[in-house]
Every structure is written in structure tokens, then in C-alpha cells.
Write a structure and sequence with these properties.
With 226 residues, the protein is α/β, with parallel strands linked by helices. It has one domain (3-217): Rossmann fold (3-Layer(aba) Sandwich). Helices cover 36% and strands 11% of the residues. The chain is built from 7 helices and 5 strands; from the N terminus they run βαβαβαβααβαα. It has a 5-stranded parallel β-sheet with strand order 3-2-1-4-5, sandwiched between helices. ATP binds at residues 8-18. InterPro entries: QueC, Rossmann-like_a/b/a_fold. Its EC number is 6.3.4.20. Catalyzes the ATP-dependent conversion of 7-carboxy-7-deazaguanine (CDG) to 7-cyano-7-deazaguanine (preQ(0)). Zn(2+) binds at residues 191, 201, 204, 207.
Length: 226
């Protein structure tokens, strides 16, 4: 089996990506990042997901993005919540973490080189997402070009491929694909304001997108709410 590295956050999207990579025949090495996020229950979820879905290994790397702040997820800024049909936040929301996906993919790239892996999987999505600039196809394509310019594997080896299989899927499609692959969504945590037990707030943007996905798929929502 060929090695691959998959970014696993503990959320529903990355769980489906891990399952897809396994289905494609890869020995998947799961990588999570403790970056100073508001809660670590998502990292507990990442560990559960990696074990349940058969990752070859799982490691968590520490990067202190709280030291630079600039996001409601890493700074003393309130996470926006919405009641009923309240209008969404205009522009890129304050939950955007500056350079997060660039940093995480860079860590995955480094580990991929060490493992001799030519494939990196991530769960970025440009359909049902919060408008983050580092979730777009252009970003993934640009990072893949960078990876092949900046690494020994890119210059002397087989090259690096960055896979974002959920890029153009709606949340309902992601739910259906996960169920087909046997993903237990009850093990995942998506909420920006989850408590220590991983229970969701039900009101942040991540919760709203997740709940809408299960509703559109016609599937019971297994999320545990506070």
C-alpha cells in the first residue's frame, strides 16, 4: 500500500476524506494540529476518527497560532452566533484563522516527505463553507505547485499531489458519502464553541452548516448538543 498523509481535524469533512483515502488503497497517516484553538475536544474526536477508520498512524503537532491571534478561534474575540434568520456576517468571517491551511498543509508536506508519501489529503470545501480564502480550488492548486518546487520529492522524486476530494461537494453530499463509507458522524466535532465533552452549541456557522447538511440529506443528525 502507498503511504499518504491526511489532515484530520476531528470534524465531519476530514473524517470522510480519511475514509475516502483508505478506500482508494492508501495507508493513511493522520495528522492533526493543536494550534491554540478555543477547545481541544475536536482533537479528541480526531483521535477517535483516526482509530475507528483505520489510520496507519496518527500524530498531533503543536503550533502556537494563538501567539499571533487575529481570529475568533485563537484570540479573545467572540465567535459569532446566529438566531433564526439573522443575516450572515459580511465578508470573510472572524473565525478565519490567518494562514491556518497553509501551515497545516506545510506540516503534512514535511511528514509526507519523511514517509516517502506522494499524496496529501485535506478536507477543504468551496461549496458549503464560510468563505475562507484558503478553502478554494485556486489555493489547493497553488499549494501543490509550491510543494513540487520546494521539496526534494518534487524535484528529484515522483512529485507531490494534494487531494481535496470534497472540494465541490455540498454538505448533504458529504453526509451521504460518509454514510456509504461507514463514517460514524457521532464521533466527530465541528462546532467552533464546543464544550470539553465535544457538545455543540448549535448556533455558530459550523453548527448551522453541519445541521443543514444532515437535514438536506434526510438523515438524522447525530450531533450532541449542549
Amino acid at each position: 500500500m502507498k503511504n499518504a498523509v491526511a489532515l484530520v481535524s476531528g470534524g465531519m469533512d476530514s473524517a470522510v476524506v480519511l475514509a475516502l483515502a483508505r478506500e482508494s488503497g492508501y495507508a493513511v497517516h493522520a495528522l492533526s494540529v493543536r494550534y491554540g484553538q478555543r477547545h481541544t475536544s475536536e482533537l479528541d474526536a480526531a483521535d477517535r476518527v483516526a482509530r475507528t477508520l483505520g489510520a496507519a498512524s496518527h500524530k498531533t503537532v503543536d503550533v502556537d497560532l494563538r501567539s499571533i491571534g487575529g481570529s475568533a478561534l485563537t484570540d479573545d474575540i467572540e465567535v459569532p452566533v446566529h438566531a433564526g434568520d439573522a443575516p450572515e456576517e459580511a465578508g470573510i468571517p472572524v473565525t478565519y484563522v490567518p494562514a491556518r491551511n497553509t501551515i497545516m498543509l506545510s506540516l503534512a508536506l514535511g511528514w509526507a516527505e519523511v514517509l516517502g508519501a506522494a499524496d496529501i489529503f485535506c478536507g477543504v470545501n468551496a461549496v458549503d463553507y464560510s468563505g475562507y480564502p484558503d478553502c478554494r480550488p485556486a489555493f489547493v492548486e497553488a499549494f501543490e505547485r509550491l510543494a513540487n518546487l520546494a521539496t526534494k520529492a518534487g524535484v528529484e522524486g515522483a512529485g507531490i499531489r494534494v487531494h481535496a476530494p470534497l472540494m465541490r461537494m455540498g454538505k448533504d453530499e458529504i453526509v451521504r458519502e460518509g454514510l456509504r463509507l461507514g463514517v460514524d458522524f457521532g464521533q466527530t466535532v465541528s462546532c467552533y464553541r464546543a464544550d470539553a465533552q465535544g457538545r455543540a452549541c448549535g448556533r455558530c456557522d459550523a453548527c448551522r452548516l453541519r445541521a443543514a447538511g444532515f437535514a438536506a440529506a434526510g438523515v438524522a443528525d447525530p450531533t450532541r448538543y449542549a
